[in-house]
Amino acid sequence: MQHAPFGAGMRNELRASQAPPRTLWIDTARGLGIILVVYGHVLRGQFHAGLLAWGPAVELQDRAIYAFHMPFFFLLSGLFAGAQIRSRGEFVRRRLVTIVYPYILWSVVQTVLTMGAGHLANGHHSLSDLERIGTDPIGQFWFLYVLAMLQLLLLLPRSIFLLMVPVGVAVFLIFGGGPLLARAGWFLPFFATGVLLGRSGLEAALRTPGAAIAWLIGGGITFAALLAAMPLLSGLPAALAQYAVAGAGIVAALGLARLFGDRIALLPALGMASLAIFVLHVICAAAMRAGLEHIGLGQPAIAVLLVTAGGLLIPLAIYKASIATRLTPWLGLGYPPRTPLPAPVLALPEYRPLEPAGRNADVGRDQARGPAFQ
Question: pLDDT digits over 323-334, tens only?
């Protein structure tokens, strides 16, 4: 029996990846999410490098971002991953390309680079750390590890998958957010919400501008109130309140993304490149920070903005180049999008009346397309 070479198999897999037309405002939601990821890491990175004072304003931004931005991504992941699995083999192959391979490749690359970066890197890893990535992820790559764990649960019958949600919550409440299994339990309700909602369900819920405005205002007010109340809570109430805070933040972010739509072309472009940005942003932001230090730019606020921009736009440029050269999956950046990235990427917003999502959207057609970073 003859087997096709690996390269041919990859090309056939790419051709076989048939997905419904993209909903650009959901890509905008991903774009908003990845901006928060990069900005949050830059704030902490600048602080650990001794370049940013941890004052009340920075602390508030940090608390607000980390209260909901990763649950947001897990919910977005569930929107598409939860569609009917037509082939278990295809499901596993796609996760190998969009989660496992990027996890291994970029864990190695980031570790090797930090080993050679000396004082320019905030965090240092060794080859012994790479030996443990099967059970102990390096840096931000814990997200891909936990995402793979949750996606594998979709291979279970739906009823058993849903029964795992309260089990996951209980594990989190008992063990906290430290161990990987407990961390997966914390994120499982958000992932399961995305699975149950699906793309068509979310589009239907935010079909009108009025609904989007209600989500933004209602979610935003609730999020701010709960975030302010969190320091007053402790024990079980504080742990449960984390779910409410994250949920309110997600609702507000989805409402904002729906209102933005594709009016700012950079946002859906960042969303479509979110996997590339996620695996590359720590490296690019560190290089940007080192460059600013070299030229003597010491104004903290400007440095944060420039490093954040570098952590977003450099990976975006690399992602676009990988699409042009057809190297996207080989570089561990997932599958290339079936539709071109919005262009011009840095276009100014163009006013257009907000249309209901269902007018031109392919509502009702869901297909498993991989993680949130796809």
Answer: 999 999 999 999
